Amino acid sequence: MKELDLRFDLNLLRVLVALHRWRSVSKAAEALQLSQPATSLALGRLRKAVHDPLFVRSRSGMVPTSRCSELAEAAAKALSGFNEHLLNQPAFDPATSRRDFVVAAVDVGELHFLPRLMVYLHHMAPHCNLQCKTFALNEIETAMEEGRCDLALGLFAELAKSSLHVQHLSTQRMVCLVRQDHPTVRSSRVDMAGFLALSHVVVRPTGLSQELFESRLKAQGGTRRVQLVTEHFMAVPSIIAATDLIVTVPRPIADYYARIEKLRVVEPPINIDAFPVSVFWHPCFHLDPAVRWLRESIIHLFRSDGT
């Protein structure tokens, strides 16, 4: 059996359907708004591609072969199906969908985004599920392109240089946290001498907020003693509440910690520019109805949140 040329021009399907319908090159050409020579040429290309005469002449005009009728029916269905999908993009109904969404975020992002987002999903998309995953920075774009990740949330400066779409949500400042009855930090701002005299907790997740603060501190000649380095935020509030340590974190995280432990927010000794928090998505899924709904929901919930 001879195979169909993989270079087959799909525009010929329209010609085949018209010829099969009108049984006339001139009428098919008129319907297609083509010239008769162009239509005849297309018929010749069709015959060569499918290895069949397609039409034979008789006293009543052009008579399709059985192979022609079979192909014309398949072509008509294909064109009809394509037009239906083209004109009727599938909608996403959050109230009934059972879509599983995957979002890239580090644990600081989870603390900031998930509580409010999950309340929203509970009411607006009760059957949808959300997975929060941590990807290496150099893997996020590929994961999105392959459909393994729908969105990335947070401070991902490297992604801003990629081909991903990005929507700025907010800017966030860094602040310090100490226990409420800290013996030496008593005002609303810790001075440089007091700051450097303390032992510090540093959280180093995937992201740049700590690196931005550290580089600014070093630029001003400051070197702090880091007594604890951790990659996770969850244990930090209980550690700060039980010790004389100090930690520097994004303001929304500090406010969250202060609600669950007896902690006090104080201003750091240096001013550092607020850093951007954004949502990123891949161009391949820019028009995907489900991904579009999720990112627009996140933009609605978090845009301009924070200071």
Structural features, described:
The chain has 307 residues and is of the alpha/beta class. The protein has 3 domains: 10-87, Winged helix-like DNA-binding domain superfamily/Winged helix DNA-binding domain (Arc Repressor Mutant, subunit A), CATH 1.10.10.10; 100-171 and 276-302, 3-Layer(aba) Sandwich (D-Maltodextrin-Binding Protein, domain 2); 174-273, D-Maltodextrin-Binding Protein, domain 2. The strands form 3 sheets. The chain has a 5-stranded mixed β-sheet with strand order 4-3-5-12-6. The chain has a 5-stranded mixed β-sheet with strand order 9-8-10-7-11. Strands 1-2 form a two-stranded antiparallel ribbon. It has helices at residues 12-22, 25-32, 36-50, 66-87, 107-124, 137-145, 192-197, 209-219, 236-242, 251-260, 289-302; strands at residues 55-58, 61-64, 100-104, 129-133, 151-154, 165-172, 174-179, 199-203, 225-230, 246-250, 263-266, 275-281. The protein is rod-shaped, with a radius of gyration of 31 Å. The relative contact order is 0.14.
